[in-house]
Design brief:
It is built from two helices and eight strands, in the order ααββββββββ. The protein has 189 residues and is of the alpha+beta class. A hairpin with a 5-residue loop joins β1 and β2.
Length: 189
């Protein structure tokens, strides 16, 4: 009799499990379709993880673009140079690395050196006057000014002028050589 009771319990439990399995599977599917719950949360976390990874990749690409733009800006900033030179050959306002000297053997002759910048293919423009705020002048002397590549520049291996300086000559209104203050602008391609 004991075996019959045990057999009846096992059969009842087995039948219960057989009939309960489809209901459990249906409940699991219904739970996954509901908003919220652990499976939905896992799906949202996965989607957000993918989105964060995409944003990190975009951020790295933007940082690379910024570095490239900063490099390009730095290169462009060095293309145009200027110098304001006082009548005695001392330099006033100027771009980085620019120096000036009054040529002692030539009245009104100046050499404006642009350091290591090769300016032989650049355009130079100059005007008589100064933009000094420490030594303002009540009258600006009138005169003439000429610019040319440095006549003392050496030739490079290709036979072209390899110059980092501009020669400037200033004259008064009669055409006589005179030491006059000037501003020089050099624009390079």
């Amino acid at each position: 009799m004991r075996n019959a009771k045990t057999l009846a319990i096992v059969v009842a439990l087995g039948l219960g499990l057989i009939f309960l399995n489809p209901f459990a599977a249906q409940a699991k599917k219904k739970h996954e379709r509901q908003k919220g719950g652990l499976p939905a949360l896992e799906d949202r976390v996965d989607a957000l993880t993918i989105r964060v990874a995409a944003l990190e990749t975009a951020d790295i690409e933007q940082e690379t673009d910024i570095v490239a733009l900063e490099t390009a800006v730095a290169a462009l900033q060095g293309q145009n140079q200027f110098a304001c030179v006082n009548a005695d050959g001392t330099i006033g306002n100027h771009s980085t690395g620019v120096t000036s000297v009054l040529l002692p053997t030539l009245t009104g002759g100046y050499e404006v050196d642009f350091g290591t910048k090769d300016i032989h293919a650049c355009a130079a423009v100059a005007t008589i006057g100064t933009n000094s705020t420490t030594q303002p002048t009540t009258t600006i002397p009138a005169g003439f000014i000429s610019v040319a590549g440095d006549p003392g520049a050496a030739l490079d291996a290709d036979g072209e002028v390899d110059s980092d300086a501009i020669f400037v000559q200033t004259k008064d209104t009669t055409g006589a050589a005179a030491n006059l203050a000037f501003c020089l602008y050099v624009s390079c391609p």
